[in-house]
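User: Design a sequence. Structure:
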């Protein structure tokens, strides 16, 4: 297990009288797959939002690569090398694969054409997109000029994950990446998670699917009622054990 790349202590997030996070600690090691599991309302999504800038915690501290950081916007997370793939994917159906990979990070053409006329380097972005997809081993997207609206659910997920992997050089958060996917497409996404890990990227996987969690995760962070109920490994605990901790029937 690598050193700790991201750490949070005593995170608190409230929404009026509703407590989303109640003093949660979090550790992510470099180059690991960490699964975050828990029942509905356990605080999984709130935790991820606070760690990626979509929400600002009321209290607590966050460290990245050993230094205290304040992540109050999603751009703050991106500047650190943290990317997030939300369940809604946030892809633009009308744009092609390459344009989606560079959405919000478009590259302009060199010289006057880019600086004065603000023309996009479409050819360069498409070449970079092909390179990124090839390095990630994504073979289901042969043509980066195809509009995303023409792709299957699994292919769209691959585009979103590839975008995160291309720019999130250190940490990638994946929120239910296999939800509503078929068996074949789910396996492709799981293979993609393994490739990210092999490339040294730390992956945080939020999932309800226990077999998938035990298939790819190095450690499992368990949330219950806004608190961290425990951190276990697939080797130390069974799926039944994890579910028991999630529901309060057992302690970690």
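Assistant: Done.
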């Amino acid at each position: 297990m690598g050193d700790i790349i991201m750490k949070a202590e005593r995170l608190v997030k409230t929404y009026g009288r509703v407590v989303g996070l109640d003093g949660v600690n979090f550790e992510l090691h470099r180059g690991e797959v960490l699964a975050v599991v828990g029942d509905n309302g356990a605080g999984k999504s709130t935790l991820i939002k606070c760690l990626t800038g979509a929400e600002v915690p009321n209290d607590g501290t966050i460290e990245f690569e050993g230094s205290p950081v304040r992540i109050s916007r999603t751009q703050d997370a991106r500047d650190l090398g943290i990317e997030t793939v939300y369940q809604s994917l946030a892809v633009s159906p009308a744009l092609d694969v390459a344009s989606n990979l560079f959405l919000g990070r478009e590259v302009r053409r060199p010289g006057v054409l880019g600086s004065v006329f603000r023309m996009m380097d479409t050819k360069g972005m498409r070449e970079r997109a092909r390179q990124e997809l090839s390095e990630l081993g994504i073979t289901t997207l042969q043509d980066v000029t195809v509009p995303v609206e023409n792709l299957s659910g699994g292919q769209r997920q691959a585009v979103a994950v590839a975008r995160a992997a291309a720019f999130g050089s250190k940490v990638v958060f994946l929120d239910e990446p296999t939800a509503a996917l078929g068996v074949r497409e789910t396996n492709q996404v799981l293979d993609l998670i393994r490739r990210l890990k092999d490339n040294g990227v730390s992956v945080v996987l939020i999932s309800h699917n226990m077999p998938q969690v035990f298939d790819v995760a190095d450690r499992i962070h368990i949330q219950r009622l806004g608190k961290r109920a425990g951190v276990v490994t697939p080797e130390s605990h069974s799926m039944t054990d994890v579910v028991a901790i999630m529901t309060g029937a057992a302690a970690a």
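The chain has nine helices and ten strands. The two ends are 20 Å apart (CA to CA).
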